[in-house]
Amino acid sequence: MTRAWLLPTLFLASGAAVAAGLIVRGSTREGVILLVAFTLLAALNSPLVFPRSLSAAEARRRSAADGRPIVFWRPGCAYCLRLRFRLRRHARRLHWVDIWRDPEAAAAVRAVNDGNETVPTVFVAGQPHTNPDPAWVRARIARPGR
């Protein structure tokens, strides 16, 4: 859990420190702008922008029942963020699994990516697809299991 919040915390702390320095020197406007920018970076790299994460076992169970794809991701991953934002509202129809929270999920990703924790890895009908195009994933949501 703490590992997922490390990067956002660092962004927020760094932004606060630099902004405080600017404000003390009399550059209040620049300090506030910088603090807002670092806060946005922290938010974008936090687990908050992703749908609630499931365990790998629960995601597999739900996927078997409804045919929806499973996305293995981790906080701070630019490609995961890209997938999440390009899917827009459709992202909530997928089963999201944070590999930093679930060792079984991390092992599943390593098993299909030559020992690497390459994310996003999307499982559609049991078949892994590493860093797929968001349009392709969106099409799989519309037609589960294909």
From TrEMBL:
Positions of the Glutaredoxin domain = 71-127
Name of the molecule in the record:
Glutaredoxin domain-containing protein
Domain of life of the source: Bacteria
What UniProt keywords are attached to this protein's entry?
A: Membrane, Signal, Transmembrane, Transmembrane helix
InterPro entries hit by this protein: Glutaredoxin (IPR002109), Grx-like_ET (IPR051548), Thioredoxin-like_sf (IPR036249)
Signal peptide extent: 1-19
Indicate the transmembrane segments per the record.
31-50
- Stored SUPFAM superfamilies: Thioredoxin-like (SSF52833)
Q: Does the keyword Transmembrane apply?
A: yes
Q: Does the keyword field hold Transmembrane helix?
A: yes
Pfam families recorded = Glutaredoxin
